[in-house]
């Protein structure tokens, strides 16, 4: 266990838990033996789901009866007590018992409980919620996705540094290229906050990333930049729009190919290409939002994902710790 990455897992959050979570752990463990899973939740249910499929040296169960409900408000979740699986898993990172924490539970509750337990990194005013998006050339880091509705230029500059650090942690052989999400590419476009941020980033060379100026919503996936920065309101709208568009395209394509004999024949003839297309837009491959800016990383798995998606989030946890994310942010923050 000493050389393994220690992941605190809230097993009781999200749809179909704890089975979905435990199946995700089992799937992840088959691919890699680098992780030690410290699992928080109902021990009887967890043991039943594990079914002796993982050796004891790779996991530990911390029995908890109380859980944060999906219907809880952040305040209700915090008041529910310090004996919930979510609270205890986050607290374990605070105590340095684990390296990173992951939950598929209530997003608002997770952010509030994380902020109650963990300190901010020095010189960072606000944490940000970030996620991975596919682009033509690979992947992009996008932030903030809803943690902060209002931001000033200092916050957006911090997000740029944190996003670039996250990208470099996940993809150590690639260079972060940062852009600000805006309503146009011209310097005069946008509100005063984003124009001020542009000016500061444009005039001050940062060793941590290349600054590419503005990016518009229709260019998010062209791969020209790989770190996209916005306030939480704009970022959340962009995320939901992109997710809805991807679902619309895949559903419409499936209906078109299954709706007639010619469509079915076409789908058979193009099976390989269609399989690649479906995989490219599979949200499970990009599952795992990261709450950064605190002195320990917190990963939020989508509550509705399946065990494959949760397993991919565990991969993200592994790469964040191996990539030394927190120290990268500390070394580069202004």
Give a short overview.
The protein has helices at 19-31, 43-50, 74-79, 85-94, 107-117, 153-170, 192-203, 232-258, 261-269, 271-280, 307-322, 325-332, and strands at residues 5-10, 35-41, 59-63, 100-103, 128-135, 138-143, 177-181, 210-215, 227-229, 289-292, 298-300. The chain has 334 residues and is an alpha/beta fold.
Q: Characteristics of this structure?
A:
334 residues; alpha/beta; Isopropylmalate Dehydrogenase; 2 domains; 11 strands
Question: In words, what does this structure look like?
Answer:
- The chain has helices spanning 19-31, 43-50, 74-79, 85-94, 107-117, 153-170, 192-203, 232-258, 261-269, 271-280, 307-322, 325-332; strands at 5-10, 35-41, 59-63, 100-103, 128-135, 138-143, 177-181, 210-215, 227-229, 289-292, 298-300.
- The longest helix has 27 residues, at 232-258.
- The protein folds into two domains: 1-124 and 293-326, 3-Layer(aba) Sandwich (Isopropylmalate Dehydrogenase); 130-286, Isopropylmalate Dehydrogenase (3-Layer(aba) Sandwich), CATH 3.40.718.
- With 334 residues, it is α/β, with parallel strands linked by helices.
- The chain has twelve helices and eleven strands.
- Helix 4 runs parallel beside helix 5 and helix 6 (153-170) packs across helix 12 (325-332).
């Amino acid at each position: 266990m000493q050389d393994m990455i220690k992941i605190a897992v809230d097993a009781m959050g999200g749809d179909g838990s704890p089975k979905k979570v435990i199946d995700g752990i089992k799937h992840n463990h088959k691919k890699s033996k680098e992780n030690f899973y410290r699992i928080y939740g109902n021990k009887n249910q967890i043991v039943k789901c594990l079914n002796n499929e993982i050796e004891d040296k790779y996991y530990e169960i911390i029995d908890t009866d109380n859980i944060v409900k999906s219907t809880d408000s952040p305040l209700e979740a915090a008041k529910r007590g310090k004996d919930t699986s979510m609270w205890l898993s986050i607290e374990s990172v605070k105590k340095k018992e684990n390296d990173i924490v992951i939950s598929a539970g209530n997003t608002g509750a997770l952010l509030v409980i994380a902020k109650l337990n963990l300190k901010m990194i020095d010189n960072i005013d606000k944490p940000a919620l970030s996620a991975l998006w596919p682009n033509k050339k690979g992947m992009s880091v996008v932030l903030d996705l809803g943690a902060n509705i209002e931001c000033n230029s200092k916050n957006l500059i911090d997000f740029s540094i944190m996003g670039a650090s996250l990208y470099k942690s996940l993809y150590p052989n690639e260079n972060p290229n940062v852009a600000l999400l805006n309503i146009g590419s011209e310097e005069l476009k946008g509100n005063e906050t984003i124009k001020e941020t542009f000016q500061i980033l444009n005039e001050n060379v940062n060793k941590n990333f290349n600054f590419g100026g503005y990016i518009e919503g229709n260019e998010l996936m062209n791969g020209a930049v790989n770190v996209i920065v916005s306030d939480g309101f704009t970022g959340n709208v962009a995320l939901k729009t992109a997710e809805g568009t991807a679902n619309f395209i895949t559903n419409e394509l499936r209906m078109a190919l299954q709706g007639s004999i010619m469509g079915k024949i076409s789908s058979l003839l193009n099976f390989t290409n269609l399989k690649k297309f479906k995989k490219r837009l599979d949200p499970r491959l990009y599952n795992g939002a990261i709450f950064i800016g605190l002195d320990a990383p917190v990963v939020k798995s989508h509550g509705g994902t399946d065990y494959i998606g949760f397993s991919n989030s565990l991969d993200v946890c592994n790469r964040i710790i191996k990539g030394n994310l927190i120290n990268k942010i500390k070394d580069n923050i202004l």
